[in-house]
Amino acid sequence: MFRKSTDKRVAAFFADGLEECEGLVVCDLLFRSGIPCDKVSITSNRSVTSSHQVTIACDRSIGDADFSFEDYDVLFLPGGMPGTKNLRACERLCDAVVAHARAGRDVAAICAAPSILAELGLLEGRRATSNPGFQDVLAEHGATVLQDPVVEDGNLVTSKGLGTAIELGIALTRRVLGDEAVEALKGKIVYNG
C-alpha cells in the first residue's frame, strides 16, 4: 500500500523501447519511500512496450488534457533502445527537460538517456555518467565523464544502467527525503550495497 511521505512528485517518462527494469526499479523504490511517482507515456497511448516486449500501463500521458510538467519536482528519463531515441524525438519532453534543468529543478537519467541531456546542452562543464556505450556522446558535449554508478552534479543526476538502478533510486530518495528515509528504504529491500 502506498503511504505518501512528501508533496514532492516525480515523473518517469516511458517510451516504446525503454529498458523496463531501469524505469520500474526506480519507480518501485520511490513508491516504497512514499514519494509520488507517475509513469508517464510520451504518446497519447498510456500503454508502452519495452525493448524486451513487456507491456507497461502508465499512469498518465503527456497528451492528457490536465498534464503539466510543472506539477513535478523531478523529471526522470529511463534508458534502453530504441526508448532513448524515442524520448529524444519527443520535442515537448525535451523542451520541458531543458526548462526544468535551467530552472534548477532536478532531472535524472540512466543508461543511454544521459546522452539526451548531453545533446540538449545540459551537461556542458558538468560531471556525469552513462552506459559505457554512450559516454563518448557525453564527452563530445563537454561533460566530465565519471565511472561512478550514480553521479550528482547540482540538479542533474545520471546513472550507468540497469545494474545501477537501485543506486539511482536510493540517490533520488535521498534528494527528496534525506538520509533517514534512505536507511529505511535499504531495510525494506534488503539492500547490502
TrEMBL record:
Transmembrane segments: none annotated. Signal peptide: none annotated. It comes from the Bacteria. Pfam families: DJ-1_PfpI (PF01965). Residues 8-172 form the DJ-1/PfpI domain. InterPro entries: Class_I_gatase-like (IPR029062), DJ-1 (IPR006287), DJ-1/PfpI (IPR002818), Prot/Nucl_acid_deglycase (IPR050325). One of its GO terms (cellular component) is cytoplasm. PANTHER family: PARKINSON DISEASE PROTEIN 7 HOMOLOG (PTHR48094:SF12), PROTEIN/NUCLEIC ACID DEGLYCASE DJ-1-RELATED (PTHR48094). NCBIfam families: not_thiJ. This is DJ-1/PfpI family protein. It comes from Olsenella porci.
